[in-house]
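Hi W.,

Here's what went into the run:
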Amino acid sequence: MKLCLPKGTKDILPDQIHLWQKAERVFAEVCEQYGFSEIRIPTFEHTDVFERGVGNATDVVRKEMYTFEDKGGRSITLRPEGTAGVVRSFIENGMGSLPSPVKLFYNITAFRYEKMQKGRYREFHQFGVEAFGSSGPEIDAEIISLLCTFFERVGIAQTRLCINSIGCPACRPTYHVALKDYFADKVSDMCEDCKARYDINPQRMIDCKEERCKPFVANAPRQIEYLCSDCRTHLSGLEKCLSSLDIKYKIDPSIVRGLDYYTRTVFEFVSDHVGTQGTICGGGRYDRLVETMGGPSVPGIGFAMGVERFLMEAASQGVSLAERVPVNLCLVHMSESAYDQVFRLAHRLRRAGIACEVDLMGRSFRAQMKYANKLGIPYMMVIGDDEIASGMAKIKRMIDGIEVEVRLDDLPEQASIFMNESTKEN
RNA sequence: GUGGAAUUAGCUCAGUUGGUUAGAGCGCUAGUUUGUGGCACUAGAGGUCAUGGGUUCGAUUCCCAUAUUCCACCCCA
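Here's what came out:
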């Protein structure tokens, strides 16, 4: 049997890795500027963590988790998302007693057993943020602002921000009653899923995509009209913050989110370039989650961004995440006798922090030149018996052929001076 | 989980209505007379035609299964 990738996984090859590194670097940078600290949590947790955190009723927990029994008979699950694990860590490490708010960010892989589609993988990457301890709308706005800054810094435009409020335990029951009243005489004509949702969670009927359900859903009462005064105040507070930051958004009452823990604010950044999986980034507030998972009563809010989807969006917007090629020098030898010297020279240069290449294929002079050119190495230096004898050699800038002569003994310093100067000129 | 499409060289794709040694472009390697790359030219390497079974005198081609990819639904990042 030929070896191949398991379904839904991807190799990230060297020709793509710089995009990832750039995205990771910018994300970490922006998070730190907003006062978030990185946290690293395990790839797997006790299954309970997700059952209690994400919610037993969700599709993610019911049918998408990679769950297995380890050799000690424990039920273990590969994380399907980041929030539950971070909350577990928050509680376990007593972070509730740190100065509030506690602001954390992470860069993780996550695993969901799902059918493949563009922008949807079984192992995928998420950048995420969680903030604990603050219940005001300001932190909601700060997190959205963080995302806007990230997109801006990375050069992405045209992602739509949609927000909604899904209420809190105080006002949701009233809304559910209103929904049930509204749908009471209509459920029988709706899809099977909606019939089930009617009893379990009528709120989810709102974002049903079935054609036959849409007409009924269109006129259904909206959560926003049933918010309690606290939730209403929170939402208008968030709107005020966003406006004063000049962040454009749209209220989208159909955003419900599939994870059970959300309360009040939910939001998504949506793109048109990622196929049906248009949500690049989704998040919201979870004021009861920490308590539900056995911790203190501490409010929280966070988001997760699908890195694959983000990179797809960047590519389709023609955004270049490419990093400048590190300044590189190719040492080209002319003869067998020079090769030994060149090899030692490369060792010295590298130890001095100058990235350079030497022939390792036994190539002819001409072939070495071609190789350097193909790799796009910007500088080269020819070393033959003459150079060895005189102790002088020329560094040539490939793009325009400009050369400078240096003493081999002073090479590390001389080379970096020349290469730095000409880098600045460009 | 339901439904549909696809898989031929490292990459992008031709092709065989079932019939000897399977093609192109790009890429890769070497060379175009041993002190300067990009262009051009020449040559070469590289395929169990995704894998396994079946039908057939004969299968890369037809059928079935498996793996992987893509699309729609569901759901989500």
